[in-house]
Design a protein that fits this description.
CATH topology: Methane Monooxygenase Hydroxylase, Chain G, domain 1
Number of strands: 0
Order of helices and strands: HHH
Largest sheet: none
CATH architecture: Up-down Bundle
Number of helices: 3
CATH class: Mainly Alpha
Radius of gyration: 18 Å
Structural class: mainly alpha
CATH superfamily: Ribosomal protein S20
Shape: elongated
Number of domains: 1
Oligomer: single chain
Distance between the termini: 60 Å
Helix content: over 70%
Strand content: under 5%
Length: about 90
C-alpha cells in the first residue's frame, strides 16, 4: 500500500482511468461485433451502415490512446474488405 499522498492520488486516478479505458474498448468491440453480425447475416447495406458507425469509434479509440493507429486501420480495412465481398 502506498504511503505518500501523491502515490495515493495516483492509485485513485489509475482506477478511474482504467474504468474509462475499459468502457472505451468495450464500446469499440461492440461496434465491431455489430459489423460482424451484419456480415454474417449477408445484408450488405446493414453491414456497410454498421461499418460507417464503427470506423469513427475505432479512430476515436486511437485518439484517446486505447488503441494504436495501425491496429485500428488494419481492423477497418479487414472489415471493409469483408463487407465489399458480400454479394449484392
Amino acid at each position: 500500500m502506498a504511503h505518500h499522498k501523491s502515490a495515493l492520488k495516483r492509485i485513485r486516478r489509475t482506477k478511474t482511468r482504467t474504468a474509462i479505458n475499459r468502457a472505451r474498448v468495450s464500446r469499440i468491440r461492440t461496434h465491431i461485433k455489430n459489423v460482424e453480425t451484419a456480415i454474417a447475416s449477408g445484408d450488405r447495406d446493414a453491414a456497410a451502415a454498421a461499418l460507417r458507425k464503427a470506423e469513427p469509434e475505432l479512430m476515436r479509440g486511437v485518439r484517446r490512446g486505447v488503441m494504436k493507429q495501425n491496429t485500428a486501420s488494419r481492423r477497418v480495412s479487414k472489415l471493409s474488405r469483408r463487407v465489399k465481398a458480400i454479394s449484392v
